[in-house]
């Protein structure tokens, strides 16, 4: 039990039960919720032979340590995902598709980025250990299960990791509103890593200088920048579009 971790919220718990039911130790649910969504989850837990406990809201608040839980808290065993770039590349059977986040410290933004990365089919999300949000209960909830399927690699030296990616043949594309090319003008059919900075401060200098190419997201309105998770979605799905358009 000492190595167990906490999942909160319907999406995160439901995703884990579907994807890896054997890793779910037990689930605690709110005794005041008897709606269709809760009954469906309880039936799924019963079908999978997972222990569930009906408790009051105060007990759930204690278990969740202040994180919004929607009436559902689960204790689970950590899943084994890729732990480094070697693991990621060993598992690849197609061109690399990566997302690098530099300076994203807000757990809600990280959770949203992981959710989008999972939906787009990204192989891994990479971030520095310093000035970056780590995996937490908030990230787990916002990511809606994506932390269980998309490796999140926190590296000691991001500049060195970017050099490593380039040596592996990965094309690093950074987003910069001042760059002349649009994201649609860059060929993304080979090994690609999108490099995103935090909203406002953007990428750090060494990160920017490591990029092979800089491109901007076309903006037709009055705002000058997008939330990093929204920008990541736009860029990642341009890669998905290009690869789909040129697939046999």
Would you mind describing this structure in some detail?
The chain has 248 residues and is an alpha/beta fold. The chain folds into 2 domains: 5-76, Ribosomal protein L30/S12 (60s Ribosomal Protein L30, Chain: A); 85-245, Alpha/beta knot (3-Layer(aba) Sandwich). It has helices at residues 10-19, 36-47, 57-64, 85-90, 107-120, 137-143, 158-167, 205-210, 228-245, and strands at residues 5-8, 24-30, 51-55, 72-76, 97-102, 124-128, 152-155, 171-175, 192-197, 213-215. It has a 6-stranded parallel sheet, with helices on both faces. The protein has a 4-stranded mixed sheet with strand order 1-4-2-3. It is elongated, with a radius of gyration of 20 Å.
Question: Summarize this, please?
Answer:
With 248 residues, the protein is of the alpha/beta class. The chain has nine helices and ten strands.
Search tags:
248 residues, 60s Ribosomal Protein L30, Chain: A, Alpha/beta knot, 2 domains, six-stranded parallel sheet, 37% helix
């Amino acid at each position: 039990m000492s190595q167990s971790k906490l999942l909160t919220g319907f999406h995160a718990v439901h995703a884990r039960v579907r994807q890896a039911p054997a890793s779910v130790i037990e689930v605690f649910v709110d005794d005041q919720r008897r709606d269709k969504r809760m009954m469906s989850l309880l039936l799924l837990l019963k079908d999978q032979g997972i222990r569930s406990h009906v408790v009051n809201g105060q007990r759930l608040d204690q278990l969740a340590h202040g994180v919004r839980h929607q009436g559902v808290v689960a204790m689970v065993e950590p899943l084994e995902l890729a732990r480094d770039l070697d693991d990621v590349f060993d598992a690849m059977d197609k061109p690399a598709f990566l997302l690098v986040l530099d300076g994203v410290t807000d757990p809600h933004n990280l959770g949203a980025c992981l959710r989008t990365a999972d939906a787009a089919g990204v192989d891994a999300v990479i971030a520095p250990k310093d000035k970056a949000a780590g995996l937490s209960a908030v990230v787990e909830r916002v990511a809606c299960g994506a932390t269980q399927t998309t490796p999140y690699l926190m590296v000691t030296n991001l500049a060195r990791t970017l050099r490593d990616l380039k040596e592996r043949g990965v094309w690093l594309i950074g987003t910069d509103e001042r760059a002349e090319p649009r994201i649609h003008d860059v060929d993304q059919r080979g090994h690609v890593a999108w490099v995103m900075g935090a909203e406002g401060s953007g990428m750090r200098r060494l990160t920017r200088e490591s990029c092979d190419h800089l491109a901007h997201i076309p903006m037709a309105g009055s705002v000058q920048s997008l939330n990093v998770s929204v920008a990541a979605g736009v860029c990642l799905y341009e890669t998905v579009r290009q690869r789909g358009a040129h697939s046999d």
